[in-house]
Amino acid sequence: MMSSSFSSCRFADYFVVCGLDTDTGLEPDELSGENFEQSPLRRTFKSKVLAHYPENVEWSPFDQDAVGMLCMPKGLSFRTQADPREPQFHSFIITREDGSRSYGFALTFYEEVTSKQICSAMQTLYHMHNAEQYDILHMPSAGPPASLQRFNSYDITRDTLYVSKCICLLAPMAFQQACRKVLEQLHQAITSSQPPPLPLESYIFNVLYEVPLPPAGRSLKFSGVYSPVVCQRPSTSELPLFDFPLSDVFQLLGVENVLQLFTCALLEFQILLYSQHYQRLMTVAESITALMFPFQWQHVYVPILPASLQHFLDAPVPYLMGLHSNGQDDRSKLELPQEANLCFVDIDNHFIELPEDLPQFPSKLEFVQEISEALLAFGIPPEGSSCCGDGVPKLTGFRSCDEVSDRRNGNLAGSPFNSFRLKDNETIARLQALVKRTGVVGQLGCPLIAAHQKVQCEEDELQTHLLNVRLREIFANRFTQMFADYEVFVIQSNQDKDSWFSNRDQMQNFDKASFLSDQPEPYLPFLSRFLETQTFASFIDSKILCHDDEDKEHTLQVFDTRVDKVRMLNVRTPTLRTSMYQKCTNIDESEKAIEMRVSKIDHTALHPHLLDMKIGQGRYEPGFFPRLQSDVLSSGPTGNKWAKRSTAAHWRLRDKQRQHVEQLYLDNEQKHIQEARSLGASIRQPNLSNLSPSVIAQTNWKFVEGLLKECRNKTKRMLVEKMGREAVELGHGEGSITGVEENTLIASLCDLLERIWSHGLQVKQGKSALWSHLLHYQESKEKDTPAGLSPPGKNGTFAFGGKNIGEIKTDVGKARAWVRLSMEKKLLSRHLKQLLSDEELTKKLYKRYAFLRCDDEKEQFLYHLLSFNAVDYFCFTSVFTTVLIPYHVVVIPSKKLGGSMFTANPWICISGELSETVVLQVPKNSLEITFECQNLGKLTTVQVGHDNSGLYAKWLVECVMVRNEVTGHTYKFPCGRWLGKGVDDGSLERILVGELVTPTSENEERLCRTPPMQQSPSMIRRLVTISPSSKPKLNTGQIQEAVGEAINGIVKHFHKPEKERSSLSLLLCGEYGLVWALEQVFLHGFRTPRLFKNVFIWDFLERAQAHFESPEQRELEQDENWHTRAHDFCRFMRAVNSTPRNIGKDGKFQMLVCLGARDHLLHHWIALLSECPITVQMYEDTAMIKDRVLVNSLIRVLQTLQDFNITLEASLTKGIGI
């Protein structure tokens, strides 16, 4: 039943004629934005739909406004006999509100104007125009004319006037090559000297009513006016139907540019295509979206944007649109409302402008190489050639003579390869040599087809099909490889469908963090952003909704079959992280399927025949497309065998819907998904039928609502992820955000802010609307401020000094840096509120419908952003790594023993995750210093010390405070120890490990100047004092727990993604870190020393070293392992003792523990020391180090560190040569 019902669906729905309506005469087309200073022949006039057949079909209602606008997007144009009048073909697409599509194929040609009134009207327009030009020329102020139109370019007595006319087929599926042939043969019939074999009505009737759609996996032949037309349709196991020549796209743009454009489409940037040729716009748009298989573009899609809809470029949503260029204006004259997130593609000039921060597509070099090999096999240069005709695939080598003639035609830019040069690419040079050697390419660069197969379609048509399928398979294979395990990470819902739809926004449908943790590192920048797109979310939604293969939509079914095949071949485990590039292996199979279909035609349609027309109808008039007989074309046949099978209209309707499912991947579930996810139906497509102010206002209101919803969802997602991660660090639950992912979410927030700020702009200034607004605000405040006062927040809070951000050259980059900095300072909402508080400025910059002038929505938007203050971001510090940043340091001495008599000269050295400072001298009278250096990143350690000069060189330091003056982050480095000879452990310098101080709201502003005095830190002193009971002693159970917690912290650190790890120094040397925990082990049961004498763990370790190095020990018969351990221990002790640094005994113990952890030796040393005779002398019998069971337990815990590669910060090991 299915095959017969499919074949009952018609090849074409409508035949349309558009052109000049002689009854209404010449109407200027104001909407197309043409300039009335141009000569009348260069102006555009309104075109009309003159006729369409049939009147209406129920499954595809005729939209007269949309069809008229897209058949002739620039309206009517006039020519004289002196102008070129070549016919032009282009295709277009009409997307209805429910997401269903119709394809249009239009051929525009010129006919002589026979109406005397029209010729006279044109003459009159010229007289008026010439008079105006004369006045301008003779005005006293006029300089030399820039470029005068030629006078009297139309003279009614001398010139023949021609006007454009368009014939068009509207079809349910995009059989572009077949439709083009039908139209070209119809046009040939009216321009040839001989009349066609039958009246034109016979051929049009045939294609409308007697030619069915080919069933899936079959080919169909039907008759054109002069030659047969063949079309073939892929089977349900092949890639979906696509009939536009990909060769044109690669010739026009080159592989590198196509891949960049493809990446922009996947990441849902706004994409604007720009060309003089409508067909190029359509071919590039359709190709890029087809290559996205199995994913589908989810946003505004208007490959040909009619001139009357140019206000739609203001849309603050992702879009893919095509804009017609007149071939005269260059890119700089094109005023676009927003460019921050825009990918601008100048197709004719082989040029692409990319948004900033575009990540690289995974395995890009190998991917480019594989695509290049495919192109070279068909004689197409991978760098592109700009010499392809519009939609006519000429799969031949690139010849220099073509380039010369094309340059004359003005189609080629002066330097066509100015954006990317692949010519010098060694890989491609090698490939070209290989192709020549192996003779893969025939004389003209086409792969040779087996001679025994008789091909039913034209050779170049077959080549187009074969190259298309080869390239599409290569692209599809990339996703099959990248997402081979995607099903494992889909989060299936246990709700019923209705509940699922109503809660869709609150639900996660894919375990992104786990998926990303399995991916090779180089893939992460792209994949982390791609997983956040609506494109990906909709794909996963459709997977969740299709529980069994019966339900699956066509695309998903094809993709899942391929994924299963890859998994079977690779037998790869879901946890395998490999970036091994695997080439496409199923090209041959796909090419064979096409060759089979075109060598053996499955179906032949009825031939055109004479219709029941009245005598005298169908008269032939050379050069003119006739007025067709509507009575014979308005309804289909009733007598032929095919019609009998499809009399019921509801069958046709059902077939139509079914065929839409396959073509557009839209079934009812998919529509539900789109309803659940979309920003509103009318946002997806501009309304072509109604351009009234109320409809435009309604569309803009939808945009405002959509932006607010997007803002709410984004802030919520970012907070849930961030708080989830922070909760894990506090020991609750599991974390799911990675550094890459966080960066992605912030980048997408920056994109959203740019779209909000560019919605409803009065006049565009600069590429970033947000930065432009900030500059305007600053300027207005500077004007209003009396001399000597700076505008509010000028110094580092509201704006930041340009000198610090020298690496950022663009407005978009500056705006993003400003957003990141404001987020890091927890001031984003406050700053934007301040910016928008100047209502006069906002009114001056924005139209009434703009988002920023909708007060309620604006308030809600700022409220959502306020929620970011609940979490800590380092999104500025971690990204702008080379900027110069001022740091303010305060050393806080103990208040009791304040060191007012302190005579030595203090110094400090600060280390962060990115780099460290040189040694900085601190003035001893103020103990404060401000200095500027390259971004240190998150601060980790401070080395503080003095030169031991003067009479009183003893200094009790409470803590050190360091403040980043750009981000406002303040770090506290607790010390609570003496620095000086003969006091404490005799140290002259200490390494302090710090943590970020969370400012309270009261002291938030005070921190901006000098960090406040902090209370003494609760550090446990690392020495045995004269009153051991002054600190509570820990029992063996508590010590074991402390060691376990410290080791656990390190293990968790290494299980996080690399970019998300916190400071390892803090886990080793910070409060309750590994050094402190092992200190408790060695302090337990340490014998009480003599009065007034401090004994340190280091003293015990030095005595143990002396014991191991004694001659008696060396002579003892011990196993080799023991000797190795003892030798290592002594070697490290010597190295630490010989360091030139004055770090004291506890500092040396810290250094030894860090080195032992790094080299995985701690458990060996504990075993060694527990059996050492010195331990017996210096420890009580109850000491932990003497308990065999507890020591074995400790050794087992320390052995877990062997699995990790511990890298120490330079400040911890400075001066050590091991």
TrEMBL record:
Which InterPro entries would you find in this protein's record? cDENN_dom, dDENN_dom, DEN5A/B, DENN_C, PLAT/LH2_dom, PLAT/LH2_dom_sf, PLAT_RAB6IP1, Run_dom
Q: Name one GO molecular function term.
A: small GTPase binding
What is one cellular component GO term in this UniProt entry? trans-Golgi network
- Domain PLAT: start-end pairs: 885-993
For this UniProt record, the keywords arranged alphabetically read as follows: Guanine-nucleotide releasing factor, Membrane, Repeat
BP GO annotations = retrograde transport, endosome to Golgi
Q: Name one Pfam family in it.
A: dDENN
The source's superkingdom equals: Eukaryota
Span of domain RUN: 740-881, 1065-1213
Location comes to: Membrane
Q: Which family does it belong to?
A: Belongs to the RAB6IP1 family.
- How is this protein named in the record? DENN domain containing 5A
Designated gene of the protein: DENND5A
